[in-house]
Amino acid sequence: SDDLSPSPHIEYDRLLGGLLIEGFEEKSCRSRYQFARYHNSPSIPSPYLIERLRKQEALQKKCGPGTKAYKEASKQLRSRQSINVTEDCNYLLLIIHAGLGNRMLEITSAFLYALLTNRILLVDRYKEIANLFCEPFPGTSWLVPSDFPLNYGEFTQNSPESYGNMLQNKVVGGSTDRSLAGGGTTPPYVYLHLDGNYDFHDKLFFCEEDQQFLQSVPWLIMRTDMYFVPSLFLIPAFQDELGRLFPEKDTVFHHLARYLFHPTNNIWYTVTKYYRSYLAKAEKRVAIQIRIYETKGILQRNGPFPHILNQILSCAQNEKLLPEISMTDGAAAETQNNRTVAVLTTSLSSWYSDQIQKKYDEHTTVDGIIVKVYQPSHEEYQRSKNKKHNMKALAEIYLLSMGDVLITSGFSTFGYAAQGLAGLRPWIMYRSENHMVPDPPCVRAMSIEPCFHQAPYYDCKAKRDTDLGKVAPYVRHCEDVSWGLKIV
Ligand code: GDP
């Protein structure tokens, strides 16, 4: 009902410019059609992207779990047959792991890859995806059925089925040996190891000739914890299509994440209730994501670290994101007709938000604005296998995305997910070294895209390493991870 809306009179497009379609039951997943009430997108999806999403939905439905095509394809997999008789149904199964931010980045990357290569995307059913997110595709499920024939949880970098090992053992050709490409037989499935620890041969996934080979493999099983989209933009065979899908290149995650991710009702209820209780009435919402990567002993990993508190405050004040504190206390004490700024912080620790609140309670601000700090939870440490913990984390990613301005901690995929959903270019706080406040404490992001942390730096054509942050104007090194790549 409309009383849920923070501002019921504001026009909003519940279908997000055509990314979404009507027809899903609203009650079973309220966030799907309500997301737009809480966000202003800076960009409209291209008609071609919308056309391709509809095509992908049709494919997911035609080949998904329960269909004749799926039964046939999984039968072939069970019998390790390599001839593919259901030619227009090829699959990409994504193994899910890691924290929630990483998961959102990896699912988005896998989905884009599936779309580019006309595969059906299926995701790991054992990692609570169903508790966190509603089904994105109409009339079918993206969860891989429980009777899936392969024990994919056991695949590791050392598995002989991994693409890297197949190349090394010359089972297949790819870009390492042209004479083998096409000459050998096509395996029924290939395991793609694209985790942070991947090696030279695994990374050849990002070469065009290897993509040509993989195109013929009916089942790809992928394990990744990364946003590898920037490297897809560097594969010549995908460039035209990507240009048509995303005329504004830096909106890939923004559009695809809003298309794919719809928090389940419990989570969405928490988010909207919190928003309406604490954030809706403020004149401005400043969202601050505090993620701490100090390497000191595990017990004090999240602090309290005064240098991080100072970094947050100097970033917010230098960039005029939070009101300036008055130097002449008492004189400017008349508060101005209840103007408030709401600060939404997320962190595993409550210390930072308590300190920020204390600062503003003890001093008045120059223009009399009141600052109120809210932090929904403080979980103390990461527990990515705990259902309630993950639900809180997802709620907080969405609350961060509802800020008018956003400050994030560099390196963190949690923050990338929030900025991407919001369509905001955040101020990124640099990672501190030796307990010093970095100078400057933060920098405005070049784009709303996430950073690909472990990007390969191999030039497939020249067959040597090169700086891939310099080969295309729209793929650059990240602000926070100097060796990473991001689309700008
Ligand atoms: P990254 O490690 O910062 O890149 O982000 P991930 O989301 O992949 O993993 C961190 C995990 O730690 C999250 O998914 C949460 O489970 C937990 N976590 C980290 N920061 C927060 C926070 O601010 N709030 C909550 N609720 N959980 C957090």
TrEMBL record:
Record's keyword annotation contains Hydrolase: no
Major subcellular site: Golgi
One GO MF term: galactoside 2-alpha-L-fucosyltransferase activity
Keyword field: Cell wall biogenesis/degradation, Glycoprotein, Glycosyltransferase, Golgi apparatus, Transferase
Membrane-topology annotation of the record: Single-pass type II membrane protein
Gene Ontology CC: Golgi cisterna membrane
Keyword NADP among UniProt keywords: no
Taxonomy, superkingdom: Eukaryota
Subcellular location field: Golgi apparatus, Golgi stack membrane
EC number: 2.4.1.-
GO biological process, one term: xyloglucan biosynthetic process
Protein role: May be involved in cell wall biosynthesis.
Family label: Belongs to the glycosyltransferase 37 family.
Name of protein: Fucosyltransferase
Organism expressing this protein natively: Paspalum vaginatum (seashore paspalum)
Residues of the whole record sequence present: 113 to 600 of 605
